[in-house]
Amino acid sequence: MRIGLYPGTFDPITLGHIDIIRRGAALVDRLVIGVAINRDKGPLFDLEERVEMIESVCAKLSEETGTEIVAHPFENLLIHCAHDVGAQIIVRGLRAVADFEYEYQMVGMNRVLDRNVETVFLMAEAKHQAIASKLVKEIARLDGDVSSFVTPEVRERLLAKLGKA
């Protein structure tokens, strides 16, 4: 069984993330969505809320793609998370050149830690390339419409979290 790991903070999960999940699912038999517990980033949504949103979105994607998609919180090194879930592939989404520079460094470090875990980059669809969770939160905070960037369910949860529902 080919297992992939798509890691991120997903604060919140966006249509860009969903695009990468859908396309990543086509490459593997099981796709694990690694939900990073990154205390340094100070996420808006707590871990349980992020996992709930991912599980809700991914239940539909699992049905569509025929691939098992599960959420898995982690707080250790990405390569250790890959070992924990049995992943041979790390799936990463790229939006722009700036993403590539950071990801290139990460691949190099991960290859030193374990040469058997391969990283696969998927370019975001053009319509999703500008979407970043940080910007989505800022737009919502400033009363902008985020419906082009997240699912209706995530939009509702985001507005409720910001006290704007």
From TrEMBL:
InterPro entries: Cyt_trans-like, PPAT, Rossmann-like_a/b/a_fold. Its main location: cytoplasm. It is found in: Cytoplasm. Residues 5-138 form the Cytidyltransferase-like domain. Pathway: Cofactor biosynthesis; coenzyme A biosynthesis; CoA from (R)-pantothenate: step 4/5. Signal peptide: none annotated. It catalyses: (R)-4'-phosphopantetheine + ATP + H(+) = 3'-dephospho-CoA + diphosphate. It comes from the Bacteria. SUPFAM superfamilies: Nucleotidylyl transferase. Keywords: ATP-binding, Coenzyme A biosynthesis, Cytoplasm, Magnesium, Nucleotide-binding, Nucleotidyltransferase, Transferase. Its EC number is 2.7.7.3. GO terms for cellular component: cytoplasm. GO terms for molecular function: ATP binding; pantetheine-phosphate adenylyltransferase activity. The record marks H17 as: Transition state stabilizer. ATP binds at T9, F10, H17, G93, L94, R95, E103, H128, Q129, A130, I131, A132, S133, K134. Its cofactor is Mg(2+). It holds the Pfam family CTP_transf_like. HAMAP family: PPAT_bact. Homohexamer. This is Phosphopantetheine adenylyltransferase. It comes from Pseudooceanicola nanhaiensis. The gene is coaD.
